[in-house]
């Protein structure tokens, strides 16, 4: 199942395809005993997609059979033991994809000439993904982080390794690299190579970067390259040889502190905008501002969800299952704001006070 939504992956998902490009979305659960229930819901959603194709006169028998095969293959790839909060299956002639989301999605089936991506975009933004680059004299590892975990990344040339004379891993485990390890020319070249690889990866997958290592390693990376100057430093050695759990526990306090600072900065920006009358609050007002491309900064509380109906000139509360109800309006707003260049921030519940879960700083 796919998880990392890079700009290239998003562009590929959004390209036009022969009709029907089928999107099947269902909420899922991370723990038992709900996996059996999730499995039934998912099979029913796939069956509904096939039924919609059967009743659509514009879908030929051959194309219907081909997309149905792709749906079945996608369904066979789903592993609910590793489920998160939502699942998306995309199927079209000759292809299928399965995406796991760390954010709940409404159950829905859509037939179109593009895949439905707004829920993926919103989930990726809410997850606040980040990179952790862990430095040692003989090894540089890259960790893909988000949603309370890190996973070692094996791409972009990482991990980088080299032989070091008289290297003592037991000493590394106890106290980190000896200072002399970061003063020789071979180590300079090694960390310059790591800097080049990380810079290339950030161009393809931009996100916040945390760099861990002994102070001497951090100083040398800063001296020989450019990524350290844009990163948050974590002065802790040994993580290049550590487990994922050890890396996460080491960087977690730093990431939480950065998130706290970000939430305070958002609150200050909203308060300033309110004083300048460049402020929108509540789903109806923010939605209209988003459609006009006026939102510069969008703030959304992490668990804010609302179902609405669109009356044309404004949105009103609705119940799930109502005719024309829009259950993922928040995700629509997030995607619309990102499309118009807004900075989108998810903040802890309760941060936005009387804004009722969603607010924005306006460009004009």
Task: Walk me through this protein's architecture.
The protein is an alpha+beta fold and 364 residues long. The chain has ten helices and 17 strands. The strands form four sheets. Strands 5, 6, 7, 8, 9 and 10 form a six-stranded mixed beta sheet that branches. The chain has a four-stranded antiparallel beta sheet with strand order 3-2-1-4, sandwiched between helices. Strand 5 (130-135) and strand 6 (139-145) form a beta hairpin. It is globular. The mean pLDDT is 92.
Question: Spans with pLDDT under 50 lasting ≥5 residues?
Answer: none
Number of strands: 17
- Give the CA-based shape: globular
Radius of gyration: 23 Å
Task: Produce a short descriptive summary.
The protein is of the alpha+beta class. It is built from ten helices and 17 strands.
């Amino acid at each position: 199942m796919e998880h990392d939504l890079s700009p290239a992956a998003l562009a590929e998902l959004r390209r036009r395809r022969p009709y029907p490009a089928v999107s099947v979305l269902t909420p899922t659960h991370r723990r038992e005993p709900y996996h059996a229930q999730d499995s039934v819901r998912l099979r029913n959603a796939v069956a509904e997609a096939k039924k919609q194709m059967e009743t659509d006169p514009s879908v030929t028998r051959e194309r219907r059979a081909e997309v149905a095969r792709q749906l079945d293959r996608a369904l066979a790839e789903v592993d609910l033991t590793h489920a998160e909060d939502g699942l998306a299956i995309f199927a079209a002639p000759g292809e299928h994809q399965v995406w796991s989301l760390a954010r709940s999605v409404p159950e829905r089936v859509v037939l179109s000439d593009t895949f439905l991506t707004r829920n993926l975009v919103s989930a990726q933004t809410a997850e606040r993904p980040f990179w952790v680059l862990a430095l040692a004299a003989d090894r540089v590892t890259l960790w893909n982080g988000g949603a309370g975990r890190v996973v070692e990344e094996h791409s972009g040339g990482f991990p980088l390794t080299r032989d070091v004379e008289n290297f003592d891993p037991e000493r590394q485990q106890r106290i980190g690299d000896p200072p002399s390890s970061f003063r020789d020319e071979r180590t300079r070249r090694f960390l310059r190579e790591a800097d080049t690889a990380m810079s290339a990866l950030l161009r393809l997958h931009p996100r916040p970067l945390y760099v861990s290592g002994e102070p001497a390693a951090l100083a040398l990376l800063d001296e020989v390259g450019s990524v350290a100057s844009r990163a948050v430093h974590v002065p802790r050695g040994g993580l290049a040889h550590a487990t994922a759990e050890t890396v996460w526990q080491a960087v977690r306090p730093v990431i939480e502190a950065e998130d706290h600072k970000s939430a305070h900065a958002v609150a200050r920006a909203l308060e300033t905008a309110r004083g300048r009358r460049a402020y929108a609050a509540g789903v109806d007002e923010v939605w209209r501002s988003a459609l006009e491309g006026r939102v510069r900064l969008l703030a959304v509380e992490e668990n804010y969800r609302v179902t609405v109906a669109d009356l044309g000139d404004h949105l009103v509360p609705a119940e799930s299952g109502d005719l024309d109800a829009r259950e993922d309006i928040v995700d629509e707003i997030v995607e619309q704001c990102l499309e118009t260049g807004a900075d989108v921030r998810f903040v802890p519940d309760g941060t936005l006070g009387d804004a009722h879960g969603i607010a924005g700083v306006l460009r004009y």
